[in-house]
Amino acid sequence: MKYFKVVAAAAAIALAATACGGDDKDDSAAGKDPATLKVWMMGDGTPEQTKFLDGVEAEFKQKHPNTDVQIKYVPWPQVAPTFQKAAAGGEGPDVTELGNTDVQSHIEQGNLADITDELDGWADGKTLNKTALANDQGDGKTYAVPWYGGVRGIWYRTDWFQELGIQQPKTWADLTAAAKKIQDGKKVPGIGAPSDQTNALVSFIWGNGGEVAVKEGGKWAGRLDQPQAAEAVNFYAGLVSKEKVAPEKYIGKNELEGPQRDFALGKLGMYIDGSWALKEMKKISEKDAGKWGVFPIPTKTGGNAPVMAGGSDLAVWKDSKAKGAAFDYITVLNNAKNAKAWADYSGFSSMRSDVKFTDPKLEIFTQIATNTKFTPISAGWGEFEQAKKVLPNAVKAIMQGKSADGELKKANEQANTLLNP
Amino acid sequence: MLDTAPAVRKPPGRKAAGARIRRRPRLGPYLLIAPTVIVIALLMFWPMVQIGIMSFQKVGNRQLRGEPAEQVGTENFDKILSDPFFWQTFRNTVLFAVVAVTLTMLVGTLVGLLLNKLGKRMSAFVSGGVMIAWATPPVTAAIIFSWLFGTTGGLVNWCLDLLPDALIGGGWADHNWFATPLSTYTVLTVCVVWQSCPFVAVSVLAGLKSVPSELYEAARVDGSGPWRTFWSITYPLLKPIFMVLLVMSVIWDFKVFTQLFIMSGLANRDAFNLSLYAFSEAFGSLNPKLGMGSAIALVLTMILLVVTALYVRVMVRQGETK
Question: Chain B contact for A265, CB < 8 A?
């Protein structure tokens, strides 16, 4: 999967090199309708997504008949360099999708336009998820609006649970026991615990009362060396190294580089992923799709752990010459009708309170999403998690037998420096 | 990423005798070479100069948007040179280059000798085969190799699992080749050597074709075996070619990036080499540290310049003795 993305990224660069530029002639009439509106979408893009966006464009044209919408797909692995180039070269979008963990970095760097007033004038703005919106604000101004989000749960095989007499795990001990039973009964690894899946790992830390970092007097202070966090990381890594219910083959990988495929093929008992995985797994194998189920990530002593609310937001690029039209596009893209169509296609929950999934299988995610948390809202999180991959590398080392105390102490020092850029 | 330009360069030391005659300086040749020089200067030298400048600055997104960059002196270099992690990536880079270059030269030369021995049809068949390895883009090769060595459906693990357990032990089906630096680099070496030995083989073959066959006949008459023949005739005559190939292989293997990036990526810092380290600093996240990345890239460039300087020195020495 990832490798396809790399190839796609390479193709996208080649396309971008030939496709950009050449439409600056109509700047003089600022505020008027531009000839083209450049919209950047994250991810590889699919024919279905293009079709959906064509519909959005048609609706947008009712208000701006002279504007053509130009969509560009930016594959996720290529996102950081692409935005760097946009900031440096001025060849940026008008409207862009942003990963919600990156929004604070963009605000800090001055990439986004202030849309506080526009948002106030948009009636539907009141339906937007408040927690998600808070992540789009800085210094009392709003720079982006939440579009969609997703939370993770544990995917499992309902038929195997029934056959082996396993109840839905409510505690960490239950989870280990369930994984062990599957491993013995079905001769496949019980659960996937890849080392590069911070968005799942944090649920274990939060569920145990721990934190990655907390804000103290205007500065982020690491909490990874605290016993709650350490116990959670030890449990997660111990699934591989101590309990041996998670295979070593996922060390150094993320959930897409093995677990998702193996689970879809019936070669893995459980793994952690979001609602959007359903669509991807069906592409791998539809055979057992009817027997896939999801339960919330448990805490150590019982109950549902808080989950990371990942997702995407929509923003107007600061250098855009057509900010009014750009915000109008956002209001069309995220109106009630289109938001529902998008949620049903993509498998991500809409960030509008008035939009729900049509597919009952994904209902559980709506319940999981009532208990969300956010990783530190710091411009340094990008470097901590993406460039340096501090937690994935620490987890990997612990899975391979290094001392957890030592690794977490180092990771905590990194958090102290990197989260305060 | 194989750069074929140097390959067509004539082996040094075979200058035409007439080149020493002084001529009036003429403009024509310079005009002909000007477009190339200008393009290279714009696309290669200018960015290199910029890297040199940026390595003494703090450059992030705000600077990319046009704010003036802050001069930090040698802070970037102090930081990386005092960081044990830098030395770990440095060690990975050097060890990999030593092993990969040795194997590339060895396998490439053997294939070259084989091609020279084979009949016309077979030779065309084999060289066609190695050319495919050479023509494969690094991205494609890296993806193929990570599939070959992958879990669930990986051909290598499947084969190893079929072999009797007494021979190599069991449990290969789920073996993770990319979990530790040593095994990651084993796969990387196989991949890189597979791709770069064809160039060596073809160059050696071209050299062999230019060796007069009388020399080999004389050796045979004197009762020399293949080992002796190689070291007494082939190697001394082809030494300039071997030197060029050696230096170019060193340069290529020092800066291997694509394959490692695809096979192990940013989540395995223990397997980083210098290129990947520079990339992760400069482009790894939305908070780029282009100054740091430039500093690392500059260190890598310096190492390669030293290697090249050594090579030029050797070549000049060889020219003098002739």
Answer: yes
Asked whether A325 and A34 are in contact (CB, 8 A), the reply is yes
Radius of gyration of chain B (CA): 24
For residue A131, the model assigns a pLDDT of: 80
Which of B 284-313 lie inside 8 A of A, CB atoms? 284-289
Q: What is the pLDDT of residues A67-92, one digit of tens each?
A: 899 999 998 878 888 888 888 777 88
Q: What token pair was written down for A288?
A: 């057992």
Tell me the shortest Cα–Cα distance from A415 to chain B, in angstroms: 15
Looking at domain B27-321, its CATH superfamily turns out to be: MetI-like (1.10.3720.10)
Query: What is the rounded distance in angstroms from the CA atom of residue A288 to the CA atom of residue A276?
Result: 17
A152-194, pLDDT tens digit by residue? 999 999 999 999 989 999 999 999 999 999 999 988 999 999 9
Angle at A408 between CA A406 and CA A409, to 5 degrees: 65
CA A128 – CA A351 distance, rounded (Å)? 6
Cβ–Cβ contacts within 10 Å for residue A354, how many? 11
Q: What is the mean pLDDT of residues A134-156?
A: 89
How far is it, in rounded angstroms, from Cα A133 to Cα A119? Answer: 11
Task: Yes or no: say if B109 and B201 are a contact pair by the CB < 8 Å rule.
Answer: yes
Rounded CA-CA distance A57/A105 in Å is 29
For an interface test with B, the pick among A82, A183, A253, A255 (most B C-beta atoms closer than 10 Å) comes out as A253
Cα–Cα distance for residue pair A368/A349, rounded to 1 Å? 11
CA distance B185 to B261: 12
The CATH number of A2-150+310-368 is 3.40.190.10
User: The dihedral of CA B185, B7, B140, B43: what is its sign?
Assistant: positive
**Which ipTM value was assigned to this complex?**
0.76
Q: What is the DSSP string of B184-238?
A: HHHHHHHHHHHHHHHHHHHHHHHHHHHS-HHHHHHHHHTT--HHHHIIIIIHHHH
Tokens describing residue A155 = 């995917």
Which tokens in the block code for residue A206? 């939060």
Give me the residue label for tokens 């991810």.
A43
B12 lies within 8 A of chain A by CB:
no
Q: Is the CB of residue B291 less than 8 Å from the CB of residue B50?
A: no
What does R_g of chain A's alpha carbons equal in angstroms?
22
Mean pLDDT of chain A, nearest integer: 85
| Residues A23 and A94 sit within 8 Å (Cβ to Cβ) | no
Nearest to A191 by CA among A254, A262, A129: A262
Shortest alpha-carbon distance between residue A84 and chain B (Å): 7
What distance lies between CA A386 and its chain's CA centroid? Answer: 13
Domain residue extents for chain A? 2-150+310-368, 152-306+380-418
Domain A152-306+380-418 classification at class level: alpha beta
Per-residue burial over A83-101, b if 16 or more Cβ lie within 10 Å, else e, is bbbbbbeeebbbbbbbbbb
Find, among A143, A141, A71, A76, the residue nearest to A103 by Cα: A143
- Tell me the C-alpha distance between B91 and B270, whole Å: 11
Q: Burial level of A13, CB count in 10 A (0-12/13-18/19+)?
A: middle
User: Taking a C-beta distance cutoff of 8 angstroms, is the pair B268, A396 a contact?
Assistant: yes
Secondary-structure breakdown of chain A: helix, strand, coil percentages, each rounded to the nearest 5: 45, 15, 35
Tokens of B314: 């050797």
